[in-house]
Write a structure and sequence with these properties.
CATH topology of the largest domain: Rossmann fold
Mean pLDDT: 88
Helix content: 25-40%
Number of helices: 11
Distance between the termini: 23 Å
Oligomer: single chain
Strand content: 15-25%
CATH class of the largest domain: Alpha Beta
Shape: globular
Amino acid sequence: MERRQLAELLTAVQRGECSIDAALARLRGMPFEDLGFARLDHHRALRNGFPEVILGEGKSPEQLIAIAERMAAAGGRVLVTRLAPEGGERLLAALPGFEYHPTPRLALRRAGSAPPTGRGTVLVVSAGTADLPVAEEAALSAELMGNRVERVYDVGVAGLHRLLERREQLWAAAVLIVVAGMEGALPSVVGGLVDRPVIAVPTSVGYGTSLGGLAALLGMLNTCAAGVVVVNIDNGFGAAAAATRINHPPPA
């Protein structure tokens, strides 16, 4: 249950449109639901602003479908990350209302989504086409979390004029998620151009000494540009969650 749904339920009780017993029946499954192999945290959205996210890796198709079905029954948004195409096909065949995006390996259910809000736009910037799976994981996750999202892709430092051509878009964003592999230089460049928070995402793209993204991670952590923070390797979802909290500050 998300905050909006709980507020609607409490308002209905206050107006006499819903009985206390009926409201209690809707809440009785909280704060978690035990499926035996998983304990679903239905209070996650009330605490953190977004429902529990399902990691597709390591789960059998039957487990994944059962979890997604119960999350969907709770009536809110559902996000499944790191889901292989075969698993995406089985999920779509079993449950209506889901969509699958093969590039970022994401499945999502938009039911219950509200129009985008927040201070402004979350801009996702990627260095190269090979970084698109992580960039799109960040962009689609940020959209589902209620942000206005724009994309600027394939503007890495090997052709810096491509990035500078989009500088007005960089300056207009409220938060920037910058995704890069190889040596991971792009977030430092962007951080030197803008006065907004920059969330750097290293990817595992690169040749041998990139060490599966470790070189990019260390390069981003050692940036001399102020205002750049770094998430884990290939963690587009984590960057989207951080950007959402920046873009949606809690009420005073």
